[in-house]
Amino acid sequence: MELQRVSPESVGIPSQAVSEMLDELYRYGIEMHAFMLLRHGKVCAEGSWNPYRPGVQHSMFSFSKSLTSTAIGFARQEGILSLDEKLVDIFPDKIPDDPSENLKKAEIRHLLMMGCGHENEIEWDGGDWITTFLHHPFVYEPGTHFLYNTAGTNLLSAILTRKTGQTLTQFLRPRLMEPLGLSDIPCHALQDGTEMGGAGCSLTIEDMARFTQFVANKGKWEGKQLLEESWFEEATKKQIENRGAGWDGDPDWQVGYCYQFWRCEPEGVFRGDGAFGQYGIVFTKQDAVLVIQSASMRLQAVLTSVWEKLLPAMKEEPLPENEKTLEFLQHRLNNLELNPMLSMRNPWAEKSLDGKVFLPDQPAPAMTDLIGGAGKFTPDGGKLLSLGFRFRGDDAALLCRQDDCEYEIKLGLTGHFDLSDVNGVPYGANGCWKGGNQLEVEFRNTTKVTGKRVTFTFLEKKLTVTALSTQPEGGLNDDPTPELTFTLSEGEAETKGKMYWETK
Q1: Cβ neighbours of residue 247 under 8 Å, at least 6 residues apart?
Q2: Half-sphere exposure in the Cβ direction for 3 (13 Å, CA)
Q3: Which of 57, 170, 255, 495, CA to CA, is 20 to 30 A from 193?
Q4: Is the pLDDT of residue 495 over 60?
Q5: Phi, psi of 259 (to 5 degrees)
Q6: pLDDT tens, 356-379?
Q7: 99-122 burial: b if 16+ Cβ within 10 Å, else e
Q8: Which residues face 201 on adjacent strands?
Q9: Crossing angle of helices 150-164 and 64-77, rounded to 10°
Q10: How many Å apart are CA 169 and CA 84, to the nearest integer?
């Protein structure tokens, strides 16, 4: 079923309030990727910031935890497990020979509420992580001490697999994904095959909206009660105190933790929450849902913008439409883009480089590994054999040849991000010349949260490539990727003469 699209005013939200929320996010410097606002189950505002696209699955980080919680709810409903089952009974083969009293008390519900009793998270050395988790000291009586514990959520996924023989996503597919019309959600797996229910899922913005609306509906979808209402009443209420638990005093991290959901400061509001600002917010009193994909470290600022600009403007009755403000909002939503670099061309250098091929001076990683962003769990593999360039008017591209494939990535030199598809993975790029011999390009693998700012420096017959990671709020960070050097291939050097910068 398609989600119905309506105007904000028709569901009691002024278009201006949506614009003011976007203004506030911009004022805080939040890097937004996408959002979708629903009221009474209808989409009333949505947008994606180029090069991010609404149909592309985006790294969710800990928003995945809410999906895992929901899977446990389905398993309980079907009698596969109960929340008071003891970890020592589920994993008798992985517990210490002499388990502590606190470990013996630890139950599934304590994993759900982040209160299993650990004082700190495990340090995994690549061995049997479940054994490591169960041998880690259970310092506190379960249910008495909050510790945000991603490994504990991964253990919930492992419990589901032990009970059913299915992975987390296999279990959820017929129960959640297919009935809600979600895309086939991928989830990164650990070495033992356990899917990372704590951080490994990727969703489109509409996947997020449909799932969060399902939670807001307390398990009902298209008139069918798929998951019992009582589960959501339990899963979204405060289960454990989290005040003073190391979240720097941000108010929306001090209001209580549920079963892999967070309570929020405004009354009747809770959320699913992933790193860098992946939010699924439910406003129970207003019958509204807001989902956000972003790349921010100012997590409280994102929520504060919503509480101050959007929430107070929601009215119970439809509002008269203001054609001017509605048209302004729609125009804005249709033209969202990350802050691009201004177009700065160098036609003489481009003419020299068009068709040239450079060979690496040392073994070089795949270009897609060089430009991959945060949320990239595993490298693509492959070795880079050559880099080439094409400059023909607005058609500017980086040509990559590897030992396993060939592909090109548009460079976006017209003041906007250009989109490319590399072996099924969407990329955006935006670049400009910084001088006579230096080309700077920001690359985004748009399934990830951050990207890479890559500088190509040309000197005589040499090319040097350096990369910095883009950071939330527009920063750049040192990158572990070493500087790479290339040499113009001998045939190119012999037949095409001097490069532009050699004549300066």
Answers
A1: 253, 254
A2: 26
A3: 57
A4: no
A5: -100, 80
A6: 999 999 998 888 888 876 666 667
A7: beebbebbbbbbbbbbbbbbeeeb
A8: 187
A9: 40
A10: 23
Predicted confidence (pLDDT) at residue 199 exceeds the cutoff of 90? yes
The span from the CA of 13 to the CA of 39, in Å, is 9
- Determine how many CB atoms are found less than 10 A away from the CB of residue 468: 18
- Burial pattern 278-305, b for ≥16 Cβ within 10 A else e, equals bbbbbbeebbbbbbbbbbbebbbbbbbb
pTM, to two decimals: 0.95
Burial class (CB in 10 A: 0-12, 13-18, 19+), 424: exposed
- For residue 51, whether the previous peptide bond is cis, meaning omega lies within 30 degrees of 0, is yes
The CA-CA-CA angle for residues 154, 114, 126, to 5°, reads 35
CB-based contact 415:341 (threshold 8 Å): yes
Q: Residue 478 — pLDDT band, cuts 50, 70, 90?
A: low
Stated as kind and residue range, the H or E segment containing 213 is helix 205-216
Do the Cβ atoms of 254 and 248 come closer than 8 Å?
A: no
For residues 69 and 112, the answer to whether their CB atoms sit within 8 Å is yes
Contact 282, 205 (CB under 8 A): no
Q: How far is CA 319 from CA 22, 245, 280, 327, 328, in A?
A: 20, 42, 25, 15, 17
Q: What's the mean pLDDT in 199-228?
A: 98
Distances (CA, A) of 84 to 112, 138, 151: 11, 17, 19
Q: Which two tokens stand for residue 383?
A: 């070795």
Among residues 269, 283, 293, the alpha carbon closest in space to that of 206 is found at 293
Tokens of 302: 């994102």
Which amino acid, one-letter code, is at 501?
A: W
Q: Are 422 and 350 in contact (CB under 8 A)?
A: no
In contact, 411 and 431? CB cutoff 8 Å: yes
Taking the CA of residue 458 as centre, how many other CA atoms within 13 Å lie in the half-sphere pointing to its CB? 28
Tokens standing for residue 155: 């253990």
H or E element, residue 44: strand 42-48
Helix axes 205-216, 64-77, angle to 10 degrees: 40
**Phi then psi dihedrals of residue 397, to 5 deg:** -150, 150
Residue given tokens 């012999």 in the structure block: 494
